[in-house]
Specification:
Elements (H helix, E strand, L loop, with lengths): L2 H5 L21 E7 L2 E7 L8 E2 L3 H15 L9 H4 L13 H5 L9 H7 L1 H5 L4 H8 L17 H14 L3 H10 L8 E2 L23 H4 L1 E3 L1 H15 L2 H7 L15 E4 L2 E10 L2 E8 L4 E7 L5 H14 L6
Helix pairs in contact: 2-8, 2-9, 2-12, 7-8
């Protein structure tokens, strides 16, 4: 069985939550914590110290922060239709969708991406620009009315990337470094295409190559300490009060989904609660702005369970019931 045949059954979810067949591997992950004003980090099992990992859908959160930052600067309007934000494209019915609906995953856009991947994986991966991907996979009739329903479709984030690049007149990797990664102190993070380069943790099995037009969906390489910094940044002056309110206002309660990420209640506090996945790469990052506490972990084995257990143990130790 070739690589494409192996990933085809789960390809539509491979950037979200698809389990990996490598879950029998021994626990191996990097982690970081923030408690009582102190940061800590470490590695469990067979992990290259200081390696980066694919952060999966946490890239969506980073791109949402960038969109809100541009809106704060008056360079974007979240409620503008994408026909106005991308005036050079013939979008048809899809042009009525707003940027806010894209960030909420409530756009109603048709998903032409996954059928194209099934038909011609290499040709799809070879597409360089998000605008070309929009012409092929997005433009035209809608699948449903904008705002009507939540759908975790990656085509939303093709359009988000194109909007960000046009509004800023920068490539996404430059924009995110300038507006998000450097200001958040994420000195070991970067935007990547295809696979991680030098310094990336070697996975236990192949991950889907990340197309250049899909970087907002999963093209962030990072470390656990940087992920805590990303979540913390949004509450510590990285966004205006108005933008932060938009980032943390849940729009799909059954999914705990806001703009580009999830917000959950834990023991009476509202936490930023993010996860990401691409095949064997799995990421967890949570942050409580009230106690200024956070936990993050990343792996390349495909196994969520050891990281989730470590997170839950850390949360239990953080609970007021366990304090002297």
């Amino acid at each position: 069985m070739n690589w494409f045949e192996a990933i085809l059954p789960g390809l539509a979810l491979c950037l979200v939550t698809t389990p990996s067949s490598a879950q029998d591997a021994p626990p191996a992950y990097s982690y970081a914590t923030l408690s009582d004003g102190q940061f800590d980090r470490g590695d469990i099992g067979d992990v290259t110290s200081g390696a980066t990992f694919q952060a999966g859908s946490i890239a969506k959160f980073a791109c949402s922060v960038a969109a809100l930052s541009l809106a704060d600067q008056g360079r974007l309007e979240l409620d503008a239709p994408i026909a106005a934000l991308l005036p050079d494209l013939e979008l048809g019915e899809a042009g009525q969708v707003t940027l806010r609906q894209l960030l909420q995953n409530r756009s109603g856009l048709r998903d032409g991406l996954m059928p194209a991947v099934r038909e011609d994986l290499q040709g799809t991966l070879a597409i360089a620009e998000p605008t070309e991907a929009i012409r092929r996979f997005v433009a035209g009739d809608l699948a449903r009315a904008p705002g009507e329903a939540f759908a975790y479709d990656h085509v939303n984030w093709i359009v988000v990337q194109a909007v960000l690049e046009r509004a800023s007149r920068e490539k996404l990797e430059t924009l995110l470094q300038r507006l998000v990664l450097r200001p958040a102190g994420m000195e070991h993070s970067e935007v990547f295409s295809r696979q991680l380069g030098e310094g990336g943790q070697i996975p236990t099995e192949d991950a889907m190559p990340m197309p250049g037009f899909l970087q907002c969906a999963g093209g962030l390489a990072s470390r656990p300490l940087d992920l805590i910094g990303l979540l913390r940044f949004t509450y510590k002056g990285g966004l205006s009060a108005r933008a932060l309110n938009q980032l943390t206002s849940v729009t799909t309660p059954e999914e705990n989904y806001a703009l580009g990420g999830r917000i959950r209640e834990h023991e009476g506090s509202i936490w930023s609660w993010q996860t990401g996945s691409n095949g064997p790469y799995k990421s967890i990052a949570i942050y409580d702005p009230v106690s200024d506490s956070g936990f993050a972990a990343m792996t390349a084995t495909g196994d969520w369970a050891p990281m989730q257990a470590a997170r839950d143990e850390w949360l239990a130790a953080l609970s007021p019931d366990n304090l002297d």
